[in-house]
Structures are given as structure tokens and as C-alpha cells.
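Hi Y.,

Following your request, here is the sequence exactly as I used it, all 163 residues.
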Amino acid sequence: MPSPCCGKSMSVIGTRNRKSKESSGETKVYNIRRLRCDHCCRIHHELPDFLIPYKRYEAECIESVLTNPSTHAVPADESTLYRWFVWFNHFVDYWIHCLKSIMLRTTLEKVPLNLTSANSETALLRIGRLVGNAPKWLGRIVRPIVNFNLWLHTRSAFLSEDS
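Below is the corresponding structure, written out as C-alpha cells. Let me know if you'd prefer a different format.
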């Protein structure tokens, strides 16, 4: 597996536990491989498709809430649901541009035009035109963006200045 940073080979250096909540509310613990790039020495974690970087719920839960805000069955508090909507709406234009860039770089297929935020469609419809709206659409957004080292995170947003 090539490194998302520089495309060189990576070596397994260990594992770590990663907790995630299912739609039933049950917390599962997964053993995630840690990989180090042999060239640039950066460490990466090999996440399965159903986990989103820095999110504590499985992708299916987040996707369910984003797709059906009033009829979902995800056991999460309102502030968590609100943060998911803010997170999605904040990054959707960036993700669309990343996916278009990846398509152009890999020449997988023709890139749909007019997917910018100025379009009158909702964010879900615009993203659906790129990755489809069938189940697991969130994973189809995350995987290529992470693998091309374009995933932005906000995990340090709440750290103090001393950290």
C-alpha cells in the first residue's frame, strides 16, 4: 500500500485500538494497523471504510442522520447531530473540489460540471452527483480524499495554546 503523502511504500509498525459507536448505540473496539512511510517516516492508520477519521460514530450513523434528519434512529444527542450537520456543510464544497481534482488526476471518468456552491441544489444532491446516493456514499467520499492525503481535520481545534 503506498503512502498517501509521497506514494512510497509503508511498513506496519504496530496496532492501536479505535472505538466506534454503531447505530444500535453499542460501542465496538477495532484493532487498527499503524503504518509508517519508509520514505518520509509519517505515521498513518489503516481505517476500514465504515470509520471516518476523527469521528466516533460509524459512517452509517452519520450518513443516516445527514440523509434523513427527521427519521433516523441514531442514539446521539442533539449537539452531536448538530455538529455533524455543521461539519458536513462546512466541508462539502471542499470535498466536491477534491473529488473533481482526483477524477481529473486519475482520469477515471468525465467530471460533472456545475457542482459549485453557487448551484441551487442541496449539498447532498451535489455530492450525490459525484459519488451516487446509494448507501455508503459517505465512505465513497472519504476514502479517495484520505488516500490522496487531502483530508482536513479539526481535531486540534479545541486544544489550548499551551499544547
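DSSP finds four helices and three strands in the chain.

Thanks again,
Q.
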